[in-house]
Amino acid sequence: MGLRRAEFGLAAIACLLALVAWPVAAAAQTGGRTIYCCDVGGQPVCGDILPAACYGRAYREMSPSGVVRRTVSAPLTAEEIARRAETERQRRAEEADRLRQLRLDQALLETYRSLKDLDSRRDRELRDLDRSIRELRERESELVERQQALINEATRTEDSAVAASLEEDIRTLDSEIVTQSRIIAAKLRERSAVLDRFEEHRQRYVELISVTPD
Question: Which pTM was predicted?
Answer without folding.
Answer: 0.57
